[in-house]
Amino acid sequence: MRSRALALASIVAAVINHPTIAAAEGDAARGAKLAYTCMGCHGIANYKNPYPTYSVPKVAGQSAEYIVIALTGYKTGTRGHGTMHSHAATMSDADMKDIAAFFAGEAKVERKPNMTAAAAPKAAQVCVACHGADGVALLPIYPTLAGQHADYLERALHEYREGSRKDPVMSTFAGQLKDEDIGVIAQYFSGLEPGLATAKPKQ
After folding, report:
1. What is the DSSP string of the chain?
2. pLDDT tens digit string along 54-92?
3. Sites in the chain below the pLDDT cut of 70
């Protein structure tokens, strides 16, 4: 119990001091055109990353600010994924903001104001400080998790724990998790509705 309390204190401190980025106010119409290559994976329901095998994340409804942070991570190497690095490395800041504006506007995920941390299983209760008891991020720099694929969430948590995905908040948190905790957290957030959705191409 004491170790979890210490972990929570570390996470709260990291949240307070976490670097932010300028609000991503992009051109969604331009972003829809730029995102045509993204749709080859993120626009197909239940599409799988081939190796290792896990579901490609749902991005429709995710906050624009977080999408820019994620793309920047793939571009700079703080997130390891060959295909995503290749795509992000060619993007300008404006490209990222426009693509993010497109995906963020696809399906807004509404908050459930009556949900509290007590609704989450014990393993997930620390998560709600950033990701909300309803899985909707409390700040746009953090990802919404509601409805996300469980196997993708598991993969992401393992990467934070192992250090192949780097973030001052998540590395501290994931380092405290056991495998069974990761499974519980992933199942809880993936089952929340309404949630993120598979992106749909513009007609």
Report:
1. -HHHHHHHHHHHHHHHH----------HHHHHHHTTTTHHHHTSTT-EETTTTEEPPP-BT--HHHHHHHHHHHHHTSB--HHHHHHHTT--HHHHHHHHHHHHTTSPPPP-TT--GGGS-GGGTTTHHHH-TTS--SSTTS---TT--HHHHHHHHHHHHHTSB--HHHHHHHTT--HHHHHHHHHHHHT-SS--B------
2. 999 999 999 999 999 999 999 999 999 999 999 999 999
3. 1-24, 203
Structure tokens at 7: 């972990």
Give residue 177's pLDDT: 96
- How far is 100 from 27, CA to CA, in rounded Å? 9
Residue 113 pLDDT: 84
Residue 162, domain member (yes or no)? yes
Tokens of 136: 């909707």
CA distance linking residue 68 with residue 22, whole number of Å? 10
Neighbours of 191 (CB within 10 A): 12
For residue 202, being part of any structural domain is answered with no
CA–CA separation, 67 vs 71, rounded Å?
Answer: 6
CA separation for the pair 42, 19 (Å, rounded): 27
**Any idea what the CATH number is for the domain that residue 103 is in?**
1.10.760.10
Domain annotation covers residue 201? no
